[in-house]
Amino acid sequence: MNNNQLLKGTLQTIILRLLQENDKLYGYEITQKVKELSDGDFHLAEGSLYPALYKLEAEGYLETSSEIVDGRVRKYYSLSTDGESKAIASTQEATNFNEKLQLVLNLKPKIS
Q1: What whole-number distance in Å separates Cα of residue 17 and Cα of residue 9?
Q2: What is the topology classification, in CATH, of domain 3-95?
Q3: pLDDT band at 76 (very low <50, low <70, confident <90, very high)
């Protein structure tokens, strides 16, 4: 299993957390921030990013706005009030999961 497969299970949490730290981002910016923060190890494909963004928007966690940049419409995403709460809860859940995973992965052999 590569990093990108593991990333899929935490994609919504990553998006929410990035938007919590940044007022608003557009899709390409999200992919670049993930790449930058992971030292190039994580690559978000458009085929997984945009469905996650649309789902979060449909669930009321994201709000969108559009701006014209260089003659093209750019869609920005930001957290709604519910999205802010969801970001906090999702980040805490991910942190707790990672702590438990570390416990499991760092097992010491039993001495018989």
Answers
A1: 14
A2: Arc Repressor Mutant, subunit A (1.10.10)
A3: very high
